[in-house]
What we know:
Layout: H1 2-9, H2 12-77, H3 80-91, H4 97-114, E1 118-125, E2 128-130, H5 147-155, E3 159-165, E4 174-180, E5 192-198, H6 199-207, E6 215-219, H7 232-240, H8 243-246, E7 251-258, E8 261-269, E9 276-282, H9 283-286, H10 291-334, H11 349-387, H12 395-407, H13 411-429, E10 435-437, H14 438-455, E11 460-466, E12 475-477, H15 481-492, E13 500-509, E14 512-519, H16 526-534, H17 543-554, E15 559-564, E16 570-577, H18 580-586
Parallel strand pairs: 11-13
Antiparallel strand pairs: 1-2, 1-5, 3-4, 4-5, 6-9, 7-8, 8-9, 10-12, 13-14, 14-16, 15-16
Helix pairs in contact: 2-10, 3-4, 11-17, 12-13, 13-14, 14-15
Amino acid sequence: MNSLDYLRRQSFRNKLKIAFLAVIVLSVLMTGGLSYYISAATLEKNALKLTQDTVVRSAQIVDEKLNKLMLIMMTFMISQPFYDMLRDVVSGDDGRYYTHLNDLDNVFSQARVAEPLIQSIYVSTPIGEFYPSSMNRNRLTAFEDTFLYERIEQEKKNLWVEGHEDMLFSGKDRVISLILEPIFDTPVSGVYIVVNIREDGFRKLVQGDIEGGASSFLLNAEGETVYPAKEKLVRQAVDAGNLKGMMNRSEGSQSFELDGETYLLNYVRLDIADWTMTTIRSRAGVLKDLVVVKWLIAGVALAAFIVTILISGAFARYLLKPLQGLLRVMKRVESNDLTARFESGSGDELGQVGFRFNRMLEQIVVLIDEVTEAQTHKRTAEIKALSSQMDPHFLYNTLNTIYWKLKLKQIEPSQQMVMSLSRLFQLGLNNGREITTLSKELEHVRQYLELQLSCYEGLFSYEIHAREPGLSELSIPRIILQPLVENSILHGFHDLKHGGRIEIEIAGDGERWTLAVRDNGSGMDEDQVRALFWLESKKGYAVSNLIRRLQLYYGDGAEFHVDSAPERGTEIRISLPKKGEQLNEQS
Length: 587
């Protein structure tokens, strides 16, 4: 609010300068911001696509490596030494165990030479266990006691086991295991081949050619890493537990929020194992090159601000020169010099304003005569304008009451309300005439009170006393009493449930007569009484409107008095001169 006040107090020249600054700087900022947004969106999209292509290639490399391991082990299982060993397992002959152990040692060596990632190979059979002679077997742990045995017994299929500490051989190396069941021409049970590959070598294979600050890793079907993640970001993302839910397709890319920061996710499912190649990188890292663009936008905006300040003064002086000439002419007119004229050779908007101003001055003399004549008719026009506000605002409540009485089968009361409403409108409209008789005005307010009694059953009662029967044909402005009794009902009886009372009294005294409306409502304090004379109702029925109408009809001859106090009710008295003939002539 203070900035708005400051702007209002500035001269038009300063406002022009501020406008120049606002337009230029906002244009630069909007253009730069839009450019930055488009560049960031394009860069992010391209980064996701390029990373996705890299992830797909890395996944293919890992798949090929795992497929190669499977082929090596298939070759291992169809070798003659392995076949001879299986045949003795089927027959239960353990007499040739050491012969088989020696024969298989060469096959073990060939497999490890064919794939350097292989750390060790272990074969468990009912006639004994087989492994390379160069490996030191951990005698403290039997294969049947490891979780590897538990897993293969549960799933009964070839499976890949996530990174773990090697329990079968000494050294406690970190390995990833492939557990296979043998291929043989007859069913054989209890024979398992465990191939351990180096976890660190497999980790390097997975990372591959992923660059640019991206973290590449594998997730299993449960959304956990295949091997422990070294990067803090990967651990946080996995611990958050929402990666599995986001990877609902065979491959894809998207962005996600983590600890208030945006990251880019790419993933591809492997064909050989039930694992997913995953890559995470920071969006801020992708957009780090755009920091230069941010500073460039800020620099351009600052330069535009400085340049605009330098040239805005000259522009403002040039643009305001004809306006200042027009201002001088207006000052002469203000001093009652109606001969002053604006001269300008420009045909722009200010020149057109000056031309119209000259035309206006030429017509002022004619308008002065017309204004004088218009004053004569002002009284009648204001009367009609104020009277037009006197439409029944309670129509909605009345119609609603009629509707519910009909719903309740109260036919006769509903008919009576319709007749009262019709009669109320007939008397209020008065065939378009502003002046009516006192008898019709009393009938009008009586119909209004009957309708309000139907809408607010038991709320109040009323009495109408006309002390002088001869006053019934006295001419008065229409809709005088209704605003007063409405004020009693809506405000005086606002907190009442029943027991309200309204009394209308008409009395004459010589050349004047008095109209009084009393109620036993909540009353008003002094501030409320003062407000009654000034505040206008949102519904157009304020007592202040009534006072203005009476002043327009009777001038100073109308007197308005209010006697009220809290919890003592209210009495409103209107004293008017008896000038019915004058009102009839005016109407």
